[in-house]
Structures are given as structure tokens and as C-alpha cells.
Design goal:
By secondary structure, the chain is an alpha/beta fold. It contains ten helices and eleven strands.
Amino acid sequence: MINISVVSYLNSLPFLYGINSSKFFKDINLTTELPFESANSFKNGRADIALVPVGSLPLLSNYKVISDYCIGSDGPVRTVLLLSNTELPKIKTIHLDFHSLTSVKLVKILAESFWKISPHYINTSINKYVDNHHFESAVLIGDKTFELVNQYKYSYDLAEEWKKYTGLPFVFACWVGKENISSEIVDALNSAFKFGIENLDFVAEKYKDQIILTKSEILSYYNENIKYHLGEEQKKSMDKFLSMLKLSKMYI
């Protein structure tokens, strides 16, 4: 039995669709989780394969990146945002979305190295975002951003800001597996993911009732904001991000 953990966001649904459509993966234990939960599942041995936030990779051991696909963006991603009621240079406090270490670490890197600001960071329960949009600023990730973006005066897309800073795309999550995972399983995963990404119309139709976006808006998000291929530029960006984390002592 293969245990697979998939992040439970709109951007990962093509992966989920591909796995569920694959005959190779009929006999598996498939779990959908939040990004930090997916990382913990792999770290604690509950998952053999997981879609893990890049910011969590330093916390893992005995793993390898196994797929040609990822969750990335080459410009605005729309679902990883710094929302604020204060203009960027004047921000004093940022509330952090604990759902993914990647976005938390990314905003700190951008603040220190690109924006040149030194805000106070506050970890907070995600439920507070709905009732307390009067926060000065907050990092928000995932599908909730589609609804909450209009509750703040200013919106800063973290993938777009990374692109401005480095000239590189950004990778938010990648697929990892145990070091002894077979090439047969990796090939089957790549085939499943390819199938899901090549059938975005079916994915959007299947899941459109689970999100506030229309089918057309979902397809626009997939085609314009999310980049699924893990190519050389994406790997270069991952290496740069992880190197910057190490230098800034955020590696662990």
C-alpha cells in the first residue's frame, strides 16, 4: 500500500484528478491535507509520497524530489498574498498564516532583502482572518485569498515580488518521496500529473462547486497563474530560496 499526501488547495486539484484517474494508483491510501500537514505526514512516516512546501524541505530527512511537476508561478500567483491596510514601506506588523512555512519564510526574505522593512511578525489562528480583517497586514495563502483580498486596501503578491527581486519563477511546493522509491512509481506519478494538467477543463468542471470561482475563473487561474513544470529555472529558484534561508538563519 502506497500512502500519498496531497495539499488540499485548488492549485493541486489537477494532481488529485490525475492520481484518481490512474489505474496504477487504484490501491493506495490518498490523503488531502493542508501544506504543513502534508509535510508533517511525510516527516513522521505516515506518507511515502507527499506534496511538500519548499520551505519545509530543510525539516525533512531521507527524501528526494521525485516529480517533473510542482506548484509554482512565474509572476502573480494570486493565492499567496501579503494583504495590508498600510502601504508596504510603512508596514509595522505582519500576521502570518501558519498553513505553509514557505509563505512565512518568503515574506521574511522579501522584507529583509528586497523591501528593506523590519516588521514585527505574529503567528495567528487562520480563523481570525475572517473576523479580524482590520489587521494592519497579514500573509494569506490558499483558496481563501479569492474572498479576502477585497477586505484590505493593498495587496502584494509574493510570487510576483520574488520575480521582481530575483528575476526567477517561484516554487511553493514540490513532490518528495522516500529515497528508495522505485522509478516505476515515479514514472506513474508523472504520467498521472501530466494527465491531470492536460485535462484542466474536466478538473474545473468537477470541482467548480467547491470554490467561489466560476469554471472560467478557475481555468484562468490554472493557465495564467500556476506553473506546474519543474524545470531548470524552477530548480535554480528553489536552490536560491533555500540558500537565502540558510544565510538568514531560517533554514531550520
